[in-house]
């Protein structure tokens, strides 16, 4: 069973829904330790008092806000909790909005919300189903691990999904990027060819078709070094496309995408052909049955005249 990483109450209006929060994702990166180069000596981090040089236990560490001039205001966990009592166990909903209105750039990480217990299943289902009927997501805030988060809650099937979000002042404006080109007069042929390339690569969203191949290669590298095998380097990143070659590159890209799609179609056709051959091999048994049926029909047909003759002569046929 998954363990909850946060427990609290969702409140909307005067309704309170106890919930448990679970991580909806997991990383699959390779875990590394640090070593001093040329040795087998591990590198470890210690929390050290910079004045005494002695290690400090985590429980004895408090936070300090820099106020300039080398001065700090020291705050302990109890003081931080006192300014917002109950906030670390409460998720207050402020509004319900259309999901399409939220720019994906605001999303951080996804979590699943489950009922806080058997007694809260009805209110949980009420909030979930009401949001489905309204077609809206709930926007709220909660404090978790000493930080306040903006959140969006939406229904996904039977479960509520919470996504932590950035606040507006945490999202940079795209206009701040100085090197982004404005409107450029492009050739109609370039736009047409680019549209063809997009169409030739169009597909439905199938997340299971994508895999973290870099992590796979890292694992293969580890196994190769472990076995003392020779390491082969992968191809370098492609060079930037020259503007003068753009049309030619687009044309070749379209042809390549079409041939790959046709190749995929041929593979599918080959699978269907193999299935048909398998069915054809089983056909003789069906033919035997058909032959038996035809024989039975012939036998029945032969008996029919005898019955008709019996009726005419009035004799009984055994």
UniProtKB/TrEMBL annotation:
InterPro entries: DNA_bd_Ku70/Ku80 (IPR006164), Prok_Ku (IPR009187), SPOC-like_C_dom_sf (IPR016194). Residues 53-182 form the Ku domain. Residues 255-318 are annotated as: Disordered. Transmembrane segments: none annotated. SMART domains: Ku78 (SM00559). CDD domains: KU_like. Residues 260-280, 290-318 have a biased composition (Basic residues). Keywords: DNA damage, DNA recombination, DNA repair, DNA-binding. Pfam families: Ku. Coiled coil: none annotated. SUPFAM superfamilies: SPOC domain-like (SSF100939). The keyword Cell membrane does not apply. The keyword DNA damage applies. It comes from the Bacteria. Belongs to the prokaryotic Ku family. With LigD forms a non-homologous end joining (NHEJ) DNA repair enzyme, which repairs dsDNA breaks with reduced fidelity. Binds linear dsDNA with 5'- and 3'- overhangs but not closed circular dsDNA nor ssDNA. Recruits and stimulates the ligase activity of LigD. NCBIfam families: Ku_bact (TIGR02772). Homodimer. Interacts with LigD. This is Non-homologous end joining protein Ku. It comes from Asanoa iriomotensis.
């Amino acid at each position: 069973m998954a363990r909850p990483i946060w427990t609290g109450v969702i409140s909307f209006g005067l309704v309170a829904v106890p919930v448990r929060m679970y991580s909806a994702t997991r990383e699959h990166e390779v875990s590394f330790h640090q070593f001093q180069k040329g040795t087998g000596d591990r590198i470890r981090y210690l929390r050290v008092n910079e004045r005494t040089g002695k290690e400090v236990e985590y429980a004895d560490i408090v936070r300090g806000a820099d106020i300039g001039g080398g001065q700090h205001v020291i705050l302990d966990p109890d003081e931080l909790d006192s300014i917002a009592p109950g906030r670390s166990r409460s998720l207050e909903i402020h509004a319900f909005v259309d999901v399409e209105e939220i720019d994906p750039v605001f999303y951080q990480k996804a979590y699943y919300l489950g009922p806080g217990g058997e007694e809260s299943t009805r209110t949980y289902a009420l909030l979930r189903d009401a949001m489905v009927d309204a077609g809206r997501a709930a926007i709220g805030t909660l404090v978790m691990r000493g930080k306040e988060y903006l959140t969006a809650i939406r229904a996904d099937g039977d479960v509520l999904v919470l996504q932590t979000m950035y606040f507006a002042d945490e999202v940079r404006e795209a206009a701040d990027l100085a090197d982004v080109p404005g409107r450029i007069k492009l050739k109609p042929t370039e736009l047409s060819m680019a549209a063809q390339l997009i169409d030739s690569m169009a597909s439905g969203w199938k997340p299971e078709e994508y895999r973290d191949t870099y992590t796979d290669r890292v694992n293969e590298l580890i196994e190769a070094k472990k076995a003392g095998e020779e390491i082969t380097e992968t191809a370098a990143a492609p060079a930037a496309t020259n503007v003068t070659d753009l049309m030619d590159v687009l044309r070749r890209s379209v042809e390549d995408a079409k041939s790959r799609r046709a190749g995929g179609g041929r593979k599918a056709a080959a699978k269907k052909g193999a299935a048909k051959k398998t069915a054809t091999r089983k056909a003789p048994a069906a033919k035997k049955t058909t032959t038996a049926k035809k024989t039975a029909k012939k036998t029945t047909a032969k008996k029919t005249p005898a019955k008709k003759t019996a009726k005419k002569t009035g004799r009984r046929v055994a």
